[in-house]
Design a protein that fits this description.
Distance between the termini: 154 Å
Number of strands: 18
Helix content: 40-55%
Strand content: 15-25%
Mean pLDDT: 80
Number of helices: 12
Largest sheet: 10 strands, antiparallel
Order of helices and strands: EEHEEEHEEEEHEHHEHEEHEEEHEHEHHH
Length: 484
Amino acid sequence: MAVLLETTVGDLVIDLYTEERPRACQNFLKLCKIKYYNYCLIHNVQRDFIIQTGDPLGTGRGGESIFCKLYGDQARFFEAEKVPRIKHKKKGTVSMVNNGNDQHGSQFLITTGENLDYLDGVHTVFGEVTEGMDVLKKINETFVDKEFVPYQDIRINHTVILDDPYDDPSGLIIPDCSPEPTKEQLDSGRIRADEEIDDFKGKSVDEVEEIQAEKEAKTQAILLEMVGDLPDADIKPPENVLFVCKLNPVTTDEDLEIIFSRFGPIKSCEVIRDWKTGESLCYAFIEFEKEEDCEKAYFKMDNVLIDDRRIHVDFSQSVSKIKWRGKGGKYTKDDFKEYEKEHDKPSKLTLKEKVKPNQDAKYDLVLDEEIDEARASHLHSGKKHKKKKHRHSDDEEDDKKTKKSKDSDRRYEEECCREKRKSEKRDRHQSRSRSQSRDRDSHYSSSKSKDKYRGELWERERDKKRDRSRSPKKSKDKERSRYR
């Protein structure tokens, strides 16, 4: 199932996804069948993004579905088909344009970029371009204005259905041949699609070179205007001024004026000199009252010997005398001279050390005017100044004493902290040694008591054994012997 679109720049073949998008494909096929897309403008071309068309009005706000032709205005749009989901992954993907309410009419777009994920779920994909990618590239590279409308019209001239699996609905009127375009359709206010754009047609080689040189000069003038070297790109240098170069440094303004005055009256003649040294820069500008006199001097005086130098004469291309708020005309020679004078003057800023050497070394700046005022006040009020100095010296001594006391306090505090840390370390060491000695003493005393207890037990057992080892008879005899 495919459709051939014949455009003014070439042919495109679109394959349709009839199984995945049956309603969108039926709408597109039947609109092509009734020649609805004939002479439709491609009204939106965004490079490496999309190409949009399908609006008979060419504004991007019109268009209606095939169901409007069958059922009336209530069926102008139809609901979008979102299942199954098809993404805009490759170039040449064809989608129905969303009108903002998830509905579609007759407008469709063709992608000219890859992986356009932000179009997924908004515009319904229903086909892809299989032939004519070179034509698609040509449309993508066309020149457009700021609203992405091509300067030269690109239209769909004709549509041919290569395969249609859908039956024609009842009540659909199919024309026998393609209708003729109306004047409103063809009048877009742009360059017509069949109009040839060739500036060099029917012109000689010299004329073509001249046109190209004018274009290059125009572009350079625009760049100079953007940089700020020209007040306006369309500005032209005066035609009554000659530029003379390769002069001898000894040639003066009066010499040139006398030589060139034979061609006509001269308004001004100026040898350009270095504004610092006053030496000649070996070129000059001569302004005539009439352009004819300027032309005569141009043809006669080129390569003439003046003061043992072969000079070169040309028409001036300078616009330096025109003042504007830009880079080139902002400052003049007088401004630079004033700046140089101010730069040569001694600075009014001095260090406070030089003014008052008795004070502390501080990088404070004092103006010369303040210095003068200080000297005058010193002459007029000597006693007060001495008192102030004395007070100032006292204040300085107090400051020094306070600083010394603060430093000594800090050192004392640091020493105290160090001693405390040392004493804490010693106490820790002593406490550890005491605890270890206590442990040893307790262990030693416990071992002694255990030995004593064991010795006593051993002696008791020994006495018992001795008692057992004695015979009963002997004990009785002893007892008897006691009583005798």
